[in-house]
């Protein structure tokens, strides 16, 4: 229980906030009050046109390097927050570009699915 002026503790991933029941079938949801975990996939896309100098090949390489740096930060955060994920390099480029209406300068390098245990 929090006192006036205190910030209530944040729920852990997969937990309902204090005093709230989970969502889903039944009054308390699956797992005794736990909300249903939402499926999440983070897609890391680099826009090569944002680099003002360099050849197209260099811009592609820089985008891949930047994506790796962002991916590392996602992994560090997820590990600290108890969220399971892993980087995957398999991306159906043509389907993703069509689905998300990406330009030719946009390159989808990695994706991070949320691992549901």
Kindly describe this structure:
- This protein has 117 residues and is an alpha+beta fold.
- It has a domain at 41-115: NADH Oxidase (3-Layer(aba) Sandwich), CATH 3.40.109.10.
- The protein has three helices and three strands; from the N terminus they run αβαβαβ.
- It has helices at 30-33, 56-81, 93-100, and strands spanning 41-47, 84-85, 106-115.
- It has a three-stranded antiparallel sheet with strand order 1-3-2.
- It is elongated and about 60 Å long.
Mean pLDDT across the residues is 79
Shape: elongated
- Tell me the major beta sheet: 3 strands, antiparallel
Q: Helical proportion?
A: 25-40%
Kindly name the structural category.
alpha+beta
Order of helices and strands: HEHEHE
CATH H-tier superfamily of one domain: NADH Oxidase
Task: Return residue spans where pLDDT drops below 50 for at least 5 consecutive residues.
Answer: 20-32
Number of strands: 3
- Report the C-alpha radius of gyration, rounded: 20 Å
The number of helical runs is: 3
CATH fold type of one domain = NADH Oxidase
CATH class of one domain: Alpha Beta
User: What is the CATH-assigned architecture of one domain?
Assistant: 3-Layer(aba) Sandwich
Distance between the termini: 30 Å
């Amino acid at each position: 229980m929090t006192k006036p002026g205190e910030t209530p503790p944040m729920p852990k991933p997969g937990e309902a906030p204090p005093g709230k029941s989970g969502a889903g079938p039944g009054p308390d949801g699956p797992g005794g009050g736990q909300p249903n975990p939402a499926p999440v996939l983070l897609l890391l896309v680099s826009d090569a046109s944002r680099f003002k100098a360099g050849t197209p090949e260099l811009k592609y390489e820089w985008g891949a390097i930047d994506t790796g740096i962002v991916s590392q930060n996602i992994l560090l955060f997820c590990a600290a927050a108890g969220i399971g994920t892993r980087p995957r390099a398999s991306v159906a480029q043509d389907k993703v570009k069509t689905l998300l209406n990406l330009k030719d300068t946009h390159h989808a390098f990695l994706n991070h699915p949320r691992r549901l245990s």
